[in-house]
Amino acid sequence: MGGVTAGEGAGERPGKAHIEAHGTGDGSQSAEISTRLNWLRAGVLGANDGIISTAGLVVGMAGATTSRSAILAAGVAGLLAGSLSMAAGEYVSVSSQRDSERAALDLERWELAEEPEAELDELTDLLAARGLSRDVAREAAEQLTERDALRAHARVELGINPDELANPWHAAFASLIAFTVGALLPLLAIILPGPSARVPVTVVAVLAALTLCGVISARLGGAPVPRAVLRNVAGGALAMAVTYAVGTWLGTTT
């Protein structure tokens, strides 16, 4: 994806198809912090998805049958299907993000080659907008350009670190692990106790885990904790109630 393709002339401007999504960055440090927080938030949400989807599945199965092997088979199948689906979705999503970042860098590379003075003025304006005096901003822009013009524009203008573009394989693996860890909780909670305690134990364990996920996600996102916890717990409780009711109904009619 990097560079101008053979079909483009040396002076031909690369397309802007995915560039608008980047806008003007806030610098490498804030961008890197934001990236780390986004990864952590995605991990929490992946675990949350694993908890709710697997809990709904195994509680529904427990309503339909007391067979431990049947519940275990359904739970493991749900865990594998969910984790692989999450991984595939994350791979596609982050691959698109990486393509967008590469397209932005290609455009910036072309502009630096074809319009160096305009790009120097643009970098000066960006630095001045951050509180530097015009003279200091100009001097800083010139020094950054002499050192590595593309890196300077990537960090200051686009908020991209050229050495740390999004890796779809890392994202897919992290998503798979997060979902699996979350899914293991309701799976173990439904399998380990005896038939009469399975559903109560699972419900308590799942609601406790969802409370923790709600607290973490709220703090990461700067949202009110009580509202996030209530929303998370209510969603999980509703999912388990619906699937248990349906499972019980199907278990008595088949």
The pLDDT mean sits at: 83
Give the amount of beta strand, in percent. Answer: under 5%
Q: How far is the first residue's CA from the last residue's CA?
A: 55 Å
Q: Count the E strands.
A: 0
Order of helices and strands: HHHHHHH
Q: Which class do the helix and strand fractions yield?
A: mainly alpha
Assembly state = single chain
- Percent of residues in helices comes to over 70%
Rg is 25 Å
Q: Given the structure, what is the number of helices?
A: 7
Word description of this protein:
The chain has helices at 28-64, 68-114, 116-128, 134-158, 168-191, 198-221, 225-253. With 254 residues, it is mainly α. The protein is built from 7 helices and no strands. The longest helix is centred in the middle third of the chain and has 47 residues, at 68-114. The radius of gyration is 25 Å and the shape is elongated. The termini are far apart. α1 packs parallel to α7.
Give the tags.
254 residues; mainly alpha; 78% helix; 0% strand; elongated; disordered N terminus
